[in-house]
């Protein structure tokens, strides 16, 4: 089975403040279903209150991430599924719960990492 990364950037979530509680409830319900199905690997969101730092091979720390790259933010989930068809179905369930489209990628899992 392959692992799939399902994610969205923060800017994709255009939800009224009055709807945030429902989004959280619905998203957590989908994650509980994934856990019960035994396909949940891990998930969460980038803490956007903590700015990134760039760490070089010699240990030098620079404020901010790669200056040429778009910011990494938003939420993500990794699920282990038997097919891309099932990954698309789960991504659609997450999109419905989060009220925003989800990006779907095969996660390059390295068992030696």
UniProtKB/TrEMBL annotation:
Name of the protein described by the UniProt record: Transcription initiation protein
Highest taxon, organism lineage: Bacteria
Gene3D superfamilies: Dimeric alpha+beta barrel
């Amino acid at each position: 089975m392959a692992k799939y990364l399902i994610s969205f950037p923060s800017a994709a979530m255009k939800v009224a403040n009055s709807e945030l509680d429902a989004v959280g409830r619905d998203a957590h319900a989908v994650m509980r279903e994934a856990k019960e199905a035994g396909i949940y690997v891990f998930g969460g969101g980038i803490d956007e209150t903590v700015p990134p730092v760039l760490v070089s091979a010699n240990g030098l720390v620079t404020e901010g991430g790669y200056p040429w790259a778009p910011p990494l933010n938003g939420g993500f989930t990794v699920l282990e599924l038997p097919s891309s068809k099932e990954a698309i179905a789960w991504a659609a369930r997450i999109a419905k719960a989060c009220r925003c489209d989800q990006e779907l990628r095969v996660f390059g899992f390295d068992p030696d990492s």
